[in-house]
Amino acid sequence: xxxxxxxxxxxxxxxxxxxxxxxxGVPYPKITTFVQGNQKREFEIEMQLIAEEACQIRHTALEAxxxxxxxxxxxxxGAGNYFLHIRxxxxxxxxxxxxxTGAGADRISSGMRMAFGKPVxxxxxxxxxxxxxxxxxDRGSAKTMKEALxxxxxxxxxxxxxxxTKGKEITSKMGx
Length: 176
Hints:
Elements: E1 35-37, E2 45-51, E3 55-58, H1 59-76, E4 82-86, E5 92-96, E6 118-126, E7 131-137, H2 142-154, E8 160-166, H3 168-174
Antiparallel strand pairs: 1-4, 2-7, 2-8, 3-6, 4-7, 5-6
Helix pairs in contact: 1-2
């Protein structure tokens, strides 16, 4: 069956559903790497991607954002010249009532009105002002990092803003 659209799961509704020991067969999150780049080096500039609205970010969206930002930084900056940390972890289990589709499915579609559903994926709950990603670079790569964070924010279901938390005087001289 086809995965239902992410907009069905982007709103936070109801209590957290995270106790995996009571559920059978919760799929593993697609995102496995949360820290990338050079972790030992000290960088001049630090930028954060911050959520502006409360939402649930599916694990596939986090992975898509990570891939896009990583690809842009590897091409333009190089492997040892940046640091990227993805903060939220997808704990929330998403359930789906798998309904029959195709010809004749309308006869059985109202069978289980308030169905509980089976686990189909995971999501991270994010609230307004929460940090989603942290990126660190040197002054020569600051523009690339800001562009990469903005590009990654497009893949997330909430409007985001990029804030410079370290090296504001350097970025203000550059016009960022």
